[in-house]
Amino acid sequence: MRLLLVEDDDRVAAALSAVLARHGFEVAHVRSGAEALQELLVGGQEGPGFDVVLLDLGLPDQDGFEVCGRIRRTSTTPVIMVTARADVRSRIHGLNLGADDYVVKPYDMGELLARIHAVSRRSAGEEPSATGERAVPGSPDPTGTLRLGAVTIELPTRRVSVDGALVPLTRKEFDLLALLAQRPGVVFRREQIISEVWRTSWEGTGRTLEVHVASLRSKLRRPALIETVRGVGYRMATQGD
Where is the segment annotated Disordered (predicted)? Predict the structure, then answer.
C-alpha cells in the first residue's frame, strides 16, 4: 500500500514512516501542501498513485484544510487528517471538506493503522462497472433511485417505499436516510451527520439524532437497517433486509 505522509516535522515523519514501513507501507514524505498536491498530481497521471494520504493541518505554506479541499476537488484518494486540533468544530470542518477520517494527536499507533486500513478497504470496495467507471456501493441508478433490499429511496422526488408501499418521512428523516444509504457500510460520525443534515454543531443536538434514527427504524420496520457503532456514530447495513 502506497501512503503519502504530509508532515512538516521531520522527526515525527521519520518515526511514523519507520513504523508504517514495518507494517508493509511504502511511504512518500512531503513537508508542505504544495509538495503534497504535486505528488498527487504526478502520481495520478504518471505513476501508481497513492492509496491513502495522512495530512497534518499545521503546514508551513498553507492550512491543511485548504489542502484537503483541493485534493478532494481533483482526487478520490482517501484522506486522514492527523492533527493536534481536537475541537469539535475543526473535526466537523475537516469532514465536511471531504476528509475520510480525523485523528487527534497524540494517538495510539494501533488505532491509526486500523483507521488507515479501514479507509483503504472502503476505497477498494468501489468495483469497476461494465463501462469502466467505478460503481460505488449505494450509488443511485440513472433515475436517482437507491435500493436497499425492500427499501427504495427516490432522491429526486424524496419518496421512500418499503415493499412498494410509500412510507411518509419528515424532511430531516429523509435527509438522514439518504445520507447513510448512499454509502452503505461506511460509518458516519455523529458530528458529521449533525453537520450535514442539521447544518449545525453537535452540541445540544445529539438527542435529536437518536430520536430520528429510532423513528426511521420504526417507520421502515427494519430495526437492523441502520446500525449503531458504539461511541462513534451510525452506518447503513450493507444488506437491505
Answer: 123-143
Residues 112 and 82: their CA atoms lie apart, in Å, by 9
- Please report where in the chains the cell 445520507 appears, as a residue: 179
Q: Per the confidence metrics, is the pTM higher than 0.85?
A: no
Of 72, 85, 84, 1, which is closest to residue 36 (Cα–Cα)? Answer: 72
SS (H, E, C) 205-216: CHHHHHHHHHHH
Helix axes 33-45, 64-74, angle to 10 degrees: 20
CB half-sphere exposure, 45, CA atoms < 13 A: 7
Taking alpha carbons only, the member of 40, 186, 178, 181 closest to residue 119 is 186
Cα separation of 64 and 82, whole Å?
10
Q: What is the 3-state secondary structure of 146-190?
A: EEECCEEEECCCCEEEECCEECCCCHHHHHHHHHHHCCCCCCEEH
Q: Is the dihedral of CA 15, 82, 226, 215 positive or negative?
A: positive
CA distances from 137 to 122, 126, 134, 192, 207 (A): 10, 7, 10, 20, 29
Taking the C-alpha atoms of residue 214 and residue 209, their distance in angstroms, rounded to an integer, is 9
